[in-house]
Amino acid sequence: MFHAFKDILPARFRRRSIGLALSVFLRALLNFVGLAVLVPVLVIILDTEGIHSNPWLERIYLWGDFSDDRRFILAVCIGVVGIVLLKNLANLLLYKVERNFIYDLYRDLSRRLYIDYHDRGLDFVKSSNSAILSRNVNAVCLIFVTGVLMPLAAIASETMLFLLLFGALALYNPLASAIALVVFVPAVMLYYGLVRRRLNRYGEEEHRAQRMKSRTVAETFRGYTDLEVANAFPEMLKTFDRAMDRVVQVRERNATIAVLPSIFTEVGLATGMALLVAFCAGTDNTQMKLLFGIFAVAALRIMPSIRNIMGAWTALRYNRYTLDVLRDARTDKPTRESQQTDERLAFRHEISIEGVTFHYDDAPDRDILHDFSLTIRRGERIGIRGVSGAGKTTLFNILLGFYKPTAGRITIDGVPLTAANRRQWQNAIGYVSQNVFVTDSSFAANVALGSAPERIDRQRVARALAMAELGEFIETLPKGMDTPIGECGCRLSGGQRQRLGIARALYKQADILFFDEATSSLDDRTEEGINRAIEELSRNNRELTIVVIAHRESSLEFCDRIITIG
Predict the structure, then answer these.
(1) Which of 181, 205, 253, 331 is most deeply packed, by most CB within 10 A?
(2) Nearest CA to 510 among 558, 547, 561?
């Protein structure tokens, strides 16, 4: 487990963990002091004569120059209350140190995981389930810090406190410490043996069930219309119920296990007191009372300490699966700031595709593209056609910088397209897909996608909407371009979504536009309107380069050249 933490914790949190360890130790020491100061009160209650026979109390009595025992007892009680109060205030400050560490780490890990999943690229995103990735970023990181790290800190603190209490008890009376050891250690070992393997299994089972539940809910709302028409919701509900039943079943079993520490420790305490009475029977009554009282005070603090250790260990084992999720993401690697550059890669002459070959990593023997070459000159209108699976969209993803060619290269005015200049190249291009991505926000925010609200150029948005032939439609809306679109653009027709995608590319003032099957899902009339809008854009700006993928010949009639793939 140590290596797992080393792989997960970023370097700066490894350094901060030294302060966390010191805080945990100080908290254990303070809790010990808070318990130790109760001993004088116990001595005074059980044996008033002990004030003068106890060397420590006698020194305090003489140092304070007390004139009678009553004033001394009152002063001791006030002092104990003051120390306990200060101890608890110090504990609050130490808890704040630990809490800040835990939640700073949660913020950092969640952000790192979010960046890591994004940076793995299009192939990883396509092969993963978005609901599961979302759960990992939002939930697993929080479970790790609250269900693994916090219990680990609790185990460390309570173990130190237990050792301090046990050591002090051993110095005062070896018999009492031996009884505590004989009673509590077997109870802990028995508990460990009973639940260790079950906790690992329960945690992993709940994680799988929660993932299934998240995926089912996300797919239900994302595919609402298709699921309704197919009457698939009852089956989706069954899947949801099965996952929920499993979560509840596992949680119920874990709740039962969570009660066991209290049972074990309470039985242990009763057994220990019974053994102490049995061993001390017949001894001096005052000494027996004092020994029994000290054992009871120590045991009453040892008992919750052991209970906390067992409970924290239960939580740690139950949530251990989070280590594998975070370790896989390599969250310890140096983080980066998102690239906010507005620089563009210059495109004045041509894009050259030189002998490009591409295959996916999991299918190295099957080339999607093989030794493909093409030159796209500035201002050209290029059409690309081919049968399904011929590699048209893959070619686009290579041109957009999402995929790296297995062989060959892409150059823009002689400059190779690489990971280093991909952001600058993407700043120069516009992209309209078959299913235009729409956020749950306003028309203006969707057209100026990625811009902060205060940075949106509303005049430019209006021009882009007008050029995409959405201007008149926007004017009929109650809030104009500030009208909410709805989740996934549910309030838009297919043609309006595509025009919104065109408006987005125009707002960007791109040098080159890529249309990937942008009209394939539209009816003939809407398709004709979109094609006419694209052609009009090209006529009005002969410097604008347009590359279009389409199945239908009618969508490519305005192109200067048509390239067939496959």
Answers:
(1) 331
(2) 547
Structural fold of domain 2-329 = ABC transporter transmembrane region fold (1.20.1560)
pTM: 0.71
Residues in the chain: 566
Q: What is the pLDDT along the chain (566 residues), one digit of tens a residue?
A: 556 777 788 878 878 888 888 888 888 888 878 777 766 666 565 555 556 666 666 666 667 667 676 777 777 777 778 888 888 888 888 888 888 898 898 888 888 888 888 888 888 888 887 878 888 888 888 888 888 888 888 888 888 877 777 777 677 667 666 766 666 677 667 766 666 667 667 777 888 888 888 888 877 776 665 666 567 778 888 888 888 888 888 888 777 776 676 666 666 666 666 665 565 555 555 555 555 566 666 666 666 777 777 778 778 777 888 888 888 776 656 655 555 677 888 888 999 999 999 988 878 888 889 899 999 999 898 888 888 778 888 898 899 888 899 999 999 999 999 988 888 998 888 888 877 888 778 889 888 888 888 888 999 889 888 888 888 888 888 888 988 886 666 667 777 888 888 888 888 888 888 888 766 555 566 667 777 777 777 777 778 888 988 777 777 877 889 888 87
Distance CA 343, CA 328 (A): 34
Instruction: Show me where the domains of the chain are located.
Output: 2-329, 350-564
> From CA 259, how far away is CA 264, in angstroms rounded?
9
Whole-number Å distance between alpha carbons of 65 and 59: 10
CB 384 within 8 A of CB 547: yes
Give the C-alpha separation, 30 to 24, whole Å.
10
Say which DSSP state 442 is in.
B
DSSP H helical ranges for 231-360? 233-280, 285-318, 321-329
CATH superfamily of 350-564: P-loop containing nucleotide triphosphate hydrolases (3.40.50.300)
The amino acid sitting at 477 is: L
Name all contacts of 48-55 with Cβ < 8 Å and 24+ positions apart: 50/290
Q: Which long-range contacts (CB under 8 A, 24 or more apart) does 421-425 make?
A: 421/345, 423/339, 423/341, 424/341, 424/343, 424/344, 424/345, 425/344, 425/345, 425/401
